[in-house]
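User: what does the whole thing look like in 3D?
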Amino acid sequence: MSDKIDYLLEDIETITPSPEFVAASPVPTDLDERAKADRLGFWAEQARDLHWHTPFTQVLDWSDAPIAKWFDDGELNASYNCLDRHVLAGNGDRVAIHWEGEPGDTRTITYAELLGEVKRAANLYESLGVTAGDVVAIYMPMLPETIVAILAAARIGAVHSVIFGGFSADSIRQRVEDANAKLVVTTDGSFRRGKVLPLKDTVDAALDGGGASVEHVLVVQRAKNDVSITEGRDLWWHDEIAQVSDEHVAKAFPAEQPLFILYTSGTTGKPKGLLHTTGGYLTQASFTHRTLFDLQPETDVYWCTADVGWVTGHSYLVYGPLANGATQLMYEGAHDFPDLGRWFELIQKYGVTILYTAPTAIRSYMKTGRKIPEAYDLTSIRLLGSVGEPINPEAWEWYREVIGGNRVPVVDTWWQTETGAVMISAIPSQTSLKPGAAQKPVPGIVVSVVDEQGNRVDPGEMGLLTITEPWPAMARGIYGDRERYVETYWSQFPGRYFAGDGAGVDKDGDLWLLGRVDDVMNVSGHRLSTMEIESSLVDHPFVAEAAVVGATDETTGQAVVAFVVLKQSQADKIAATDPVSDLRSHVAKDIGSFARPREVHIVDELPKTRSGKIMRRLLRDVADGKAVGDTTTLTDSAVMSAISSGMAQGS
Ligand code: ATP
Ligand code: MG
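Assistant: Here's the predicted 3D structure for the full assembly of 651 residues, as structure tokens:
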């Protein structure tokens, strides 16, 4: 494999952090140096930033590889670390959560109040017979009680399994049964674009004829829709919580106590249930959160827009920010309700300083145009983060310019459900930024971009991203299926973790994510990354979003087929041209004639997972004229029917 990615060898203009940003940064400047000198010592030092009921003496035990043990003889409590210790340090009055409901109702919750709620919920769980090691399934929208339900499980050593609130009854049943959940916590309903989704009904359907391990369902009242209550099984949260004490002592649990099970987004196939444990996970989630977001807990208002049902919600909405004593915004509803200004209105209202979101959101605002964000005062923002997919340079620039006022750093953070916390990112006070690149392994993380034989690739070549040393937040396997874990991630390159993502290294040694390896195309012997062609398309002034797949082609083996969403703001200009032929030549000019798309399809929307990632495998099926594969994690099946029928009509 020696496919060149030309732009990795070009001079790339970097953006250096402003002197004011650097001067104000609390992040030590020698992290990388210390981590390189003594990696395990470095992680031990980060772990000691947490409160340990029993200090650890061992750092890493890799004898049962690839299942690691970190800080194994230490004991701690994740909930204590996120709550009690801040209150004991005198920060009980600090706001933990500014919560805004979709209809506009609000709540402000301090660390002391959140601790009180979590103590009650811990008592409630215990009164229902939930003990350490039991699994609590949480199927909820974005409510403060969702965080309470999570931390209460952690507090008593129970394992939470959060199921994204948009999943179907079948998906809930599978997850509940996979983990033998004993308790389910849900709400009556949730608000979504002004409508009420009946979550409790969906749980009822999931448990009807399945989920036999479930003893109780706790129902938080939110939307006040009618629900049916199964006597003996279902209990109203507010009734029960009023009857339990708000005194609860957090017990110590071993560092390797299971903390949660979480399923991947399912972009490439059936979701995998990853198991994460306590000490190492909390160490890396909190370290990366304060370092990569330059956290100043006394003054920042942090906002991660991810749903708590995804790993980003776990590490950067629950554990990272709360372990660091941050003040954060949590928003219940849709970004476009009642209109597309909602997020910007929230930034203005709460004075958000750090925003962490996904390229899919950024590109959707690129589609509707900068007029919407420009109508709000976004000057409170001092740092922007991106996660979930590769961010095209064009989207990175737009994000920085329009949302960040051309002033602030943007960090692109690469990681996965499996890695538990960020693995590759710039440090905003220290790294000269390159639009579109994730850039550097986090201090203490060691990666290598290799070819299929496992040899390190040269700069400018497309390779496979591997992680060569164990890290604290790494998954401790796929729940109940060690073999599948080993097979999926550790068999391609023995002793090394293979993430499934393609990457390249530029001439300065910085890392660029090039999309999933499964999506790499082979056109007349040229291997092409989806990212490369999609970025070229998004770079064209008409294009907001693009997805590229390799379709079977008799002459070239595979041919490039592109699906593009055009910018609404450019409609007049587009109408006066032939966008399809423009875009085909644009790519040919930009990358080379071998990359010229055989077809360009203009579509209204791209198929995405519920976490917002483009599902190229479905588009590949369409491009090949095959039946479309598994769509259980697709957000909106109407998108695929619209694309398929558009193709049939030769759009
Ligand atoms: P599945 O593994 O079930 O197919 P998934 O990989 O989408 O689902 P997640 O764990 O939520 O599930 O996503 C991790 C993946 O998201 C990464 O492997 C990578 O492909 C992509 N990703 C996340 N952040 C970035 C980023 N900053 N740059 C490029 N890709 C990213
Ligand atoms: Mg994955």
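In plain terms: DSSP finds 21 helices and 29 strands in the chain. The CA atoms of residues 272 and 577 lie 45 Å apart.
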